[in-house]
Amino acid sequence: MSNQKKLVIHGGTPVRTEPFPSWPRSTGEMRESLVHTLEHEKWGVGSEAVKRFEDEFAKFHDADFAISTNSGTTALWIALKAAGVKAGDEVIIPAYTFVATASAVLMANAIPVFVDINDVTLNMNPDLIEDAISEKTRVIMPVHIAGNPCHLTLINEIAARHDIAMIEDAAQAHGAEWDGRKVGAFGAGGIFSFQSTKNMSAGEGGIIVSDDEAFIDSCFSYQNAGRVRSGAWYEHRHIGGNFRLSAFPAALLLAQFEMLESDMKVRDQNAAILNEALGKIAGLSVQKRYSETTRVSHHLYILLYDKSAFGDTSREEFIDAVSAEGIPVHTGYKPIYREKLFDLDKEEFPWLKKTDFSTVTLPVTESVSDEQAIWLKQSCLLGSSEDTLDIVRAIEKVTNYFSSV
Ligand SMILES: Cc1ncc(COP(=O)(O)O)c(C=O)c1O
User: Fold this and answer.
1) Do 310 and 247 fall into the same domain?
2) Which CATH number belongs to the domain containing residue 361 in this structure?
3) Is 195 in the pocket of ligand 1 (CB under 6 A)?
4) Is residue 189 domain-shared with residue 97, that is, in the same domain?
5) Which of 53, 187, 214, 233 is deepest in the core (most CB within 10 A)?
6) Residue 235, domain CATH
7) Which ligand 1 atom lies nearest to the CA of residue 73?
8) What does the pLDDT read at residue 405?
9) Share of the chain above pLDDT 70, in %
């Protein structure tokens, strides 16, 4: 066997030795924007950059209003509180997501109720939601996983039928679209994250978008020490925190709208190359989108692996082989209900006395997490088409080997 065909794990030559584009990256526009804010504007309360950013982000995401926060997690907590979530209420969420989707529910003293995902879109399965609704359900909170919109029409209809709110966890979905409209404000509201890995990044940060002014006013209160917009500075009506975004991340983010659009084009093109080539490999399939989805953000590129096509080679072994070829692939999330944090002290959370998270089991979530998912991060889609073809070459090289064992 030639050294090119021999896998690196067997002593062969790697397909790629160059790194993929690093993330986050800085630009001249970001530097200018930061320096302008540094030298000419307020840094905190009353920040002009924050106001400009909120207005621009709302407009960009087809929403009437936006309020920024210091993280996606605090944005989730604030949105849940503004939707009226009280101690002991239930919030329906998927378990194939970052832990913050669930921890924000617990931080709001509510009970996460996990619903399984669809096996090809990897989004919360709308067919399973109604069975999970009880008289205590206050919010349905789907996640646009990997930036792939969940079925917003069906989930919104279910929420409306039961008179409960829908909040989108769009932490990964900057620029994603459902039926020609950007995600975020389809229900009561939606949140985004600007943490370092995100497609728009300020190191840390978050935002809530909504078309409902009363909802956004309530978010303002929880974000801002319980103040109300019409009240005095030292008038505090709710238990809120200081979850405000500083002017500097806002200035960084203000300089990213054009870059987001051009990056999205590059990711779309490279994802199309991968879909075309990898979709043809027996034993691999690419994450699917619903027909109403008009754009995905490709925060992650997720492949599903079927070991039966590869002589029962485990996904982990496959991932090790592809990584050794110079392509950084990962297994991704575990079902979040398995995390130690769900073993909660029932004295501290008395409304959870009758809830036992250790009995939760969701077959699709577990199969995807434990055996199938292979992730590439968004920055791997920001190279040239030649860089992207290296991903194809490496995966073909490894699949050719394992499908013949
Ligand atoms: C789906 C999801 N929800 C919530 C969050 C929380 O955002 P942050 O890390 O900004 O608190 C993240 C990101 O980290 C996420 O991916």
Assistant:
1) no
2) 3.90.1150.10
3) yes
4) yes
5) 53
6) 3.40.640.10
7) 11
8) 77
9) 100
Residues 178-187, mean pLDDT to the nearest whole number: 98
Same domain (yes/no): 118, 34: yes
| 58 Cβ closer than 6 Å to some ligand 1 atom | no
In the predicted model, is pLDDT for residue 1 greater than 70? no
Reported for 237-244, long-range contacts at CB under 8 A and 24+ positions apart, including other chains, are: 238/81, 241/74, 243/69, 243/70, 243/71, 243/74, 243/75, 243/77, 243/78, 244/44, 244/45, 244/50, 244/68, 244/69, 244/70
Q: What pLDDT does residue 308 have?
A: 97
Q: Is 97 in the pocket of ligand 1 (CB under 6 A)?
A: yes
Q: What is the per-residue pLDDT across 15-39, written as a single tens digit (0 to 9) for each?
A: 999 999 999 999 999 999 999 999 9
* Residue at 16 is within a domain: no
Q: Is the CB of 70 under 6 A from ligand 1?
A: no
Band of pLDDT at residue 315, cut at 50, 70 and 90? very high
Interval between CA 402 and ligand 1 midpoint (Å): 35
Residues 188, 275: one domain?
no
CB 368 within 8 A of CB 332: no
Distance of CA 251 to the CA centre of its chain: 22
Give which of 262, 286, 300 is closest to 381, Cα–Cα.
Answer: 300
Shared-domain flag, residues 285 and 165: no
Do 251 and 300 fall within a single domain?
A: no
Q: pLDDT tens digits, residue range 46-96? A: 999 999 999 999 999 999 999 999 999 999 999 999 999 999 999 999 999
Interval between CA 103 and ligand 1 midpoint (Å): 10
Query: Which of 71, 97, 174, 193 should be mutated for ligand 1, with most atoms under 8 A from CB?
Result: 193
> Nearest residue CA, atom 7 of ligand 1?
72
Q: What pTM did the predictor assign? A: 0.98
CA angle 314, 317, 323 (to 5 degrees): 140
* 22 domain residue, yes or no: no
Domain stops at, among 208, 234, 256: 256
Mean pLDDT of 243-260: 98
Is the residue at 45 inside a domain? yes
Arithmetic mean of pLDDT, 115-137? 98
Tokens read off for 195: 């943490």
Note down the domain range covering 103: 28-256
Kindly state the tokens that stand for 192. Answer: 């985004």
The response to whether residue 68 sits with its C-beta less than 6 Å from ligand 1 reads no
Of 238, 256, 274, which residue sits at a domain end?
256
How far apart are the CA of 233 and the centre of ligand 1, in A? 30
The residue with tokens 């009226």 is 84
The residue to mutate among 23, 69, 71, 73, having the most atoms of ligand 1 within 8 angstroms of its beta carbon, is 73
**Domain-embedded: residue 69:** yes
Q: Candidates 69, 71, 98: which one to mutate for ligand 1, based on the most atoms within 8 Å of Cβ?
A: 98
For 265-281, the pLDDT digits (tens) are 999 999 999 999 999 99
- Token pair listed for 138: 């206050």
| Together in a domain, 228 and 371 | no
* CB of 379 shorter than 6 A to ligand 1: no
Q: Is the CB of 193 under 6 A from ligand 1?
A: yes
Do 32 and 174 share a domain, yes or no? yes
Whether 339 shows a pLDDT value over 90: the answer reads: yes
